[in-house]
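User: Can you help me understand a structure? I only have the sequence.
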Amino acid sequence: MKGKKLFKVLLDVIVWIIIILAATVTVITLTSREKGVSNIFGYIPLNIQTGSMEPTIMAGDLIITREYDGATILAKETIISFFTVEENTKIINTHRIVDVYTVNGMVSYVTKGDNNDVADEQQVAPGDIISVYDNTRIAGIGSVLTFLKTKVGFFVCIILPLAAFFIYQLYKFIILILDYKKAK
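Assistant: Let's start by predicting it. Here is the structure, written out as C-alpha cells:
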C-alpha cells in the first residue's frame, strides 16, 4: 500500500513537471515577435549554440537578455545579441562589444566572442541589435529547449507524456465509475 501511494505521488510530480515544461515552451513559442525571437515583458531568452563566448557563456546555456531600445549607445565590454548573416543565412549571434565607432553621427559596434582570436568581420549597427545580456544564464537548459523545439523533441517530451497522462486520468475515471456502481 505504501509503495502504491509513493508511486501515485511520484507520478503526480512528474505530470506537473511536464505540464510546467509544456506551458513554458508554449509561452516561449507564442511570444515570438516579428523579429523571430521570444519576448516576455522585455526579456528575451536565447539559446547559446556555440562556444564562441566560453568561458563566460557556455554552449547549451539559456541566457536571459533585456530587449535593446535601439537608441542607447552601448559601452565596450557589453555583451549583445544581434542579427548577422553567415553563409547567406540570417542568424542570432551573442558577442562582446570590443570597440564603438561613430561616423557622421552613425554608431556601429565591433564585436568579438570571448573564445575567438579575432574580432568579427562585420560591424554591428544598432538596428541589428536584439538585446543586451544582463548576466543571467541557466546552464544546459538551452540545449533542452532546442531539443524541445524539434518535432521529435516536442512529441517525445510533450505530446507523449500528456497523452499518457490523459489515458491515466481516463483509467482513474473509469475505475471511479465502476466503484460507484459497485457501491450502489
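Now, to help you interpret it: The chain has a mean pLDDT of 87. The CA atoms of residues 21 and 56 lie 27 Å apart. Let me know which part you'd like to focus on.
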